[in-house]
Amino acid sequence: MKRKSWWIVPIAAWLLLAAAAFGFDFSELENAIHETTLDNGLKIIVMERHDAPVVSVVTYANVGGVDDPKEYTGLAHMFEHMAFKGTSTLGTTDIDAELKAMAVEDSVFKELRLERKKGRLADSTRLAQLEEDFDGAIEAANQYVVPNAFDQILEAEGATQINAGTGKDLTMYVMSLPSNKIELWMAMESERFLDPVLREMYREREVIAEERRQTLDNNPIRRTIDAMASTAFKAHPYGISIVGHMSDIMNYNRAAAKAYFEKYYVPSNLTVSICGDVNAKDMFKLAKKYFGRIPSKPKPEPVATVEPEQKGERRVNLEDPAQPLFICGWHVPNGTHPDWPALEAMSDYFGEGRTSMLYKNLAKENKIATNVGVYLGWPGNKYPCLLMAFAMPAPEHTNAEVEEQIFAEVERLQNELIPVDEVEKIKARAKAHFINQLDNNFGMAMALATYYTDWGDWRELFNELDRINAVTAEDIQRVAQTYLTTQNRTVAWLNTTEE
């Protein structure tokens, strides 16, 4: 979600840029922001913007793929789907009958799972009967479901951009709506985290499984990235795909999902950010009325596993009847580390956009690659992560050629200082992007929630320009020398084979 997109910058942002270069005054914005913490620990951040009678809302859960339990990889992503399934009063025609039918689902699946675990010793006749019973139990439970009830109520009242996303570090629920419907949103949003009913779970597993097939199993590029990450991370859960292993997906059950919810979806692990035509005091009263109903529970601890220092280059090769691909990942610190602004600047100069080193050398001048770039913060940046470079060799060229050229450019970064005028261009692009994301309600709401969660204080948002301005050519060279080393890298090749 933090991937930079430099190529579209509204005129308004460029007008602000001149002021930003000399230290933009954010005091007016900062004074419009108010915060409170409910008794149960839930943080509410409100920014008043009365330009139009609309509001954008973000519920930021500080939980993601890194927190998936063993044998249930991808459960964070699964629960994101479950959060739209409704409550005991929303999404059902008969909650009492539905709960009884769901209990039968769970009981039959428990027996089915135990029989499957026996492997070759499993009773095939019993397995077939349990499969049939399980399908029948799913149908019996689903007869009480009112599909998409949560979305339909909000959409009927003018809500738009109703969406959610799961990353390795976070899960976020977002929408925009008329400001006079904010109490409806408060009631429904709080209700789905106070009283979720994990209906349609066994059907939804099939949706997740198909999603994995489409986005990973049958996608050579994603499989190569996944192989590189799992090779680079030997201990930390950043090495496991966000969608989870297929065997884990097919073994999801309601008890595991409920335990996950009760551990991580607690008020002290949630941040609600509201930006738009609202009054902060009114929002705090409504938040106390609705979100204050959620019982207080201990805040979950972050992942304790630390990825050991890599002591030598690692390599992985995949074969597929697809276009060849080169990927390299270097270990770098997390997103709040003092070196991060310099790493962002280096990434921009190294491989982001058509003016970057890699594009000019590999694609424009030597024409040995059709696509080349750099991505910082894979697959997240709450914990130490990867800076990733990739290239697709042009016809008649190879992974070996693009690798040689990319590593030659790395040596240039390490041995030659970037010209001062180039450093200023890098910083100008970074400041333009930063100001641009604050230019609308949704961008501001997301930024406030993100900075509060990552830094512990949303006010760090307004120190970002200072961090950008402080970067020097020497900083960029230093981080290149520190992190882009041979022993610190993992290389993955996707090699083309005949069908």
Keywords:
499 residues, alpha+beta, Cytochrome Bc1 Complex, Chain A, domain 1, 19 helices
How many individual β-strands?
A: 11
Order of helices and strands: HHEEEHHHHEEHHHHHEHEEHHEEHHHHHE
Shape category: globular
Give the helix level as a range of percent: 40-55%
Overall structural class, as computed from helix and strand content, comes to alpha+beta
What's the CATH class label of the largest domain?
Answer: Alpha Beta
| CATH architecture level-2 label of the largest domain | 2-Layer Sandwich
Most strands sheet: 6 strands, mixed
Mean pLDDT: 92
Q: Using only CA atoms, what is the Rg? A: 25 Å
List segments where confidence is low: pLDDT < 50 over at least 5 consecutive residues.
1-23
Strands of the widest sheet, in order across it, are 1-2-6-3-5-4
Structurally, how many domains make up the residues? Answer: 2
Quick one: CATH superfamily of the largest domain? Metalloenzyme, LuxS/M16 peptidase-like
Q: In angstroms, what separates the terminal alpha carbons?
A: 36 Å
Strand content: 15-25%
Predict the CATH topology of the largest domain.
Cytochrome Bc1 Complex, Chain A, domain 1
In DSSP terms (H or I, runs of 4 or more residues), the helix count works out at: 19
Helices, strands, pairings?
Layout: H1 11-21, H2 27-31, E1 33-37, E2 43-48, E3 54-61, H3 75-82, H4 95-116, H5 124-142, H6 149-156, E4 160-166, E5 171-178, H7 182-194, H8 201-217, H9 220-232, H10 246-249, H11 254-264, E6 270-276, H12 280-290, E7 314-320, E8 325-332, H13 340-351, H14 357-365, E9 369-378, E10 385-393, H15 399-415, H16 420-437, H17 441-455, H18 464-469, H19 473-483, E11 489-496
Parallel strand pairs: 2-6, 7-11
Antiparallel strand pairs: 1-2, 3-5, 3-6, 4-5, 8-10, 8-11, 9-10
Helix pairs in contact: 1-16, 4-5, 13-19, 14-15, 15-19
